[in-house]
Amino acid sequence: MSVNALLATVILVAFIVTVVLAIGSYMAYKLRERNRGPQSRVAIEGEPVFFERVYPGVPIRTASDQAGDGGSRV
Residues 6 or more apart from 42 whose CB is under 8 A from it? Predict the structure, then answer.
């Protein structure tokens, strides 16, 4: 067997194993997520957990405004 054929075989086997492992991992993830319910009320309502939607042209309240210091910055 030549070196080229050996390297081609190794690359082909590595590619096939990678694809099989990726499909297996995805199936295991989907099975785990199917057995899990929503974690919080926010996930049920469909609201984002970490981000707040910002609309252009609409004034938003900053964290300093909500804290009650009147928005003064030093």
Answer: 48, 49
For tokens 């785990």, what's the residue? Answer: 32
pTM reported for the whole predicted model: 0.48
- Residues 23-47: b if buried by 16+ CB within 10 A, e if exposed: eeeeeeeeeeeeeeeeeeeeeeeee
Given a cut of 80, is residue 23 above it in pLDDT?
yes
Contact 29, 35 (CB under 8 A): no
Tens-place pLDDT, residues 38-57: 665 555 566 666 777 777 87
CB neighbourhood size of 71 (10 A): 11
Q: Look at residues 71, 48, 68 and name the one whose alpha carbon lies nearest to residue 59.
A: 71
